[in-house]
Amino acid sequence: MKKILAITFLVLLIDQASKIYIKTHFELNESVPVIEGFFNKTFVENPGMAYGFHFGGIIGKYFLVILRIFLIGGMVYMFKKWLKEGASNYLLVPMAIIFAGAIGNLIDGMFYGMIFDSGTVYDASTDRWIGYGGVSKFVPFGHGYSTFMKGCVVDMLHFPIVDWYVPDSWPIIGGKHIEFFKYIFNVADSAITVGAAFLLIFRKKAFPNGLEF
Predict the structure, then answer these.
(1) What top-level branch of life does the organism fall under (predicted)?
(2) 92-135 residue pLDDT tens
(3) Are 115 and 143 in contact (CB under 8 A)?
(4) For the chain, N or C: smaller number of CB within 10 Å?
């Protein structure tokens, strides 16, 4: 259990520190090159899932927050079961990384609207998420830009490895903008992805008796 808690704490610390720094030092949509042509710090806010995906307006956001809570609760139950059964680190370590990532994004969605003075908010009249100007600041708990469960996830990691405008002379795709990887994400998203990748790679060692719940 100590190993799971240590991994969870470390990933959460890096995740939340990076998000708080970006939100309190960058304006929304501001982008700063870190490695020219490869890695940018680009601040966006995401009301939905990982890598910028979202759906269903404010109802969809509530659904995702509640779903994350149930998933995290389910993972706590599974950790107790796996520890009792003597599960290997090939299972426990990746799951701890995924667990931390899920909690990291849950914190944003549940509380960021209550502790920052500005953020992206939902406009029911236009069914759109509306951004803001300036740099966010901390405010007393409960006096933020929104209420419980209405905060947005902070994303900042951007790897535009391919950023190319196709020449107009090219047939069919001429003039189009091609970008890979265009999605902007955060440490929590990365943790979930890396943890899932480790489980896939070491699945035979993680689940020597098959996938059991």
Answers:
(1) Bacteria
(2) 999 999 999 999 999 999 999 999 999 999 888 888 889 999 99
(3) no
(4) C
